Amino acid sequence: MFVSDKWIDYELLEVADGERLERWGKYHLVRPDPQVIWKGEKYSELWTKADAIYRRSSEGGGAWIKKKVPEEWQISYGDLKFCISPMGFKHTGIFPEQAVNWDWMSGLIKKAKRPISVLNLFGYTGAASVACAKAGAKVCHVDASKGMVQKAKINANLSGVSADSIRYIVDDCFKFVSREIRRGNFYDAIILDPPSYGRGPGGEKWMIEKDLDSLIASISLLISDKPLFVLLNSYTTGLSPSSCGYILHSNICKKFGGKVENKELGIPVTADGVCLPCGASSRWTP
Question: In this structure, what are the phi and psi dihedrals at residue 141, rounded to the nearest 5 degrees?
Fold first, then answer.
């Protein structure tokens, strides 16, 4: 398991009965988590006194019950700074389990001691883009949501990333990759964090089971002759780390060699010291 255990501004306090109790900076949130399938005991009084609680609706979806939490606030991870906000479908704008990947990518970029170009597909609010840029890379950040790209710009500014370090693109990732192939552009590192299902700005449909293999085959045509890494993240239920790794192996290892490492992502739970699985990552390196 790749474990994100270096947080100071984030803490996973307890998990029980389908929910997680977390600290984001000085605020406490309760959110549902499909991985928490056990009942367990809820010992902390913060379960009922949290600053915001996300409650699912019997009709689908859900909503935040906000008490003392502001509309947005900031947290830090090392020299990275992020704007946190209770968003739709239980999210806050940051996936804290990805910190272990931020550290891994930053380390590789710094160790390379040469200019590194990074393509971040499905870039969301830009945490990975910021981490890579802070390490010295030039990043192309692509996401279909104009609103998420705007949040990514805010996070980059908070972290002190220079304006010319990240190029922001609002586009369907498949279409953008196809254009980059035609343009003859290449990248030393590629990050993919695809959703299970989504739509591009022009209504383009994305289904991970149907489209992921084709996308990985396409991005293999964008890898430079001095590649550094490819990172594929997945939060899709039923899509294991090994499945993602197999796709990277079949599309990239056969062309460039190298190796793929597949593991779950995890965060330690303060109450019992056990790590909660929070997704999967597959890492290719030459």
Answer: -105, 120
Report residue 245: phi and psi, to 5°.
-65, -35
Alpha helices (H) in 19-145, listed in sequence order? 46-49, 99-112, 127-134
Q: What are the CA-CA distances from residue 118 to residues 9, 115, 123, 161, 266 (Å)? A: 27, 10, 11, 15, 25
Least confident of 32-46, 101-115, 232-246: 232-246
- Listed residue (5, 40, 233) closest to 121, CA to CA: 233
Segment holding 121, helix H or strand E: strand 117-121
DSSP letter string, 151-167: HHHHHHHHTT--TTSEE
142 close to 172: Cβ distance less than 8 angstroms? no
Per the structure block, which two tokens stand in for 277? 């699985």
User: Which amino acid appears at position 158 of this protein?
Assistant: L
Q: Which of 22, 68, 15 is nearest to 43 (CA)?
A: 15
Cross-strand bridge partners of residue 19: 16, 32
* Confidence band for 206, pLDDT divided at 50, 70 and 90: low
With beta carbons less than 8 A apart as the criterion, state whether 75 and 84 touch. yes
